[in-house]
Every structure is written in C-alpha cells, then in structure tokens.
Specification:
Layout (H helix, E strand, L loop, with lengths): L2 H28 L4 H13 L7 H20 L5 H16 L1 H5 L5 H24 L4 H33 L1
Helix pairs in contact: 1-4, 1-7, 2-3, 6-7
Length: 168
C-alpha cells in the first residue's frame, strides 16, 4: 500500500471510531428524555417473564418507575434535569466534529473524552452510593466509561500514527 493509501486508511478508521463514539453519546442522550415511557416498556417486558428471573432487578425497576411517575405527576419540572442531561450528551458529541475534520490538530478532544470516560467510574460508584443506587446498577453505569474509552483509546493510537506519518 502506498503512503497516501496508508494515511487514507488511518483517517477512515479514525473517523469510524469517532462516529461510533458520537453515536453512543447521541443514543445515550436521546434515552435520557423519555424515561417514563422507557421504564413502562422495560417493566412490561420484565413482567412478561421473558427470561428475566432477577427479583432484585425487577423490584428496583418497579421502584424507579413508580418514583419517576410520582415525581412527574407532582413535579414535572424536575424532568427538565434529564432534558439538560440529554443536551449535555448532544453538545459533547458535537465537540467530536473537530477530530472528524482534523484528528491530529484536535486529538485533545479525544483525550478529553478518554478522561471523561475514566471519571465515570469513580463518579458512578461514589455519587451513586450516596444516592442509594444499587451496586449492580452503578456497575452498569461504569460500563459506559469502559465502552466509551475503548474506541477513543484506539482512535488516539491511530491519530498518533497519522501524526507520525505526516511528519515523516
């Protein structure tokens, strides 16, 4: 493969990884708004006994669904917080347009994303504990950091390769 072909291949792989991360952020943000609808669906699926046997998880989801319904009925303005959570996901996703355009110049955005992914773990474990979130659910939240850092780590490595190819 020619040097130009190798650079083009690196750029293509970098863009795919960035798009995967952007899609994950956008999907995560989009699911932060319709919480009541999502919880109703998940509880219906669990109640249909489609292979779910965890009574602890079932009880937790019922409790969360009831809390979201009660809060929504009495204090609908509190849902505005999850709307802003969604906005934050979308705004962060937009920041990754920079590395799509010029990965070497904007590698800092990738590194920022990696740092944020690492910080998800202590934040979920510590703050979730203060809020009474079960450990299993906090570990699910931690998984967002692990799954998020994976494409970013690979992307950063490819960007360093692209940078080296541009220099020499």
């Amino acid at each position: 493969m020619s040097e130009a072909g190798a650079v083009a291949s690196l750029e293509r792989r970098i863009r795919v990884l960035i798009w995967i991360f952007i899609a994950g952020l956008a999907l995560s943000g989009a699911t932060a708004m319709p919480l009541q609808m999502e919880l109703n669906f998940v509880v219906r699926v669990m109640d249909a006994n489609l292979g779910f046997t965890s009574e602890g998880l079932r009880h937790w989801l019922w409790r969360v669904r009831e809390a979201v319904a009660d809060t929504g009925a009495k204090y609908p303005f509190l849902a505005y917080g999850t709307d802003w959570l969604a906005f934050g996901h979308f705004a962060i996703a937009i920041a990754f347009i920079g590395p799509l355009r010029d990965p070497v110049k904007n590698v800092w955005v990738i590194e920022f994303g990696m740092i944020a992914c690492v910080l998800v773990v202590p934040f979920a474990l510590i703050v979730g504990g203060f809020r009474g979130i079960p450990l299993g659910w906090r570990l699910i939240d931690c998984s967002f950091g692990f799954f998020g850092i994976s494409p970013l780590w690979r992307c950063r490595k490819l960007i360093r390769g692209l940078e080296a190819a541009a220099r020499g």
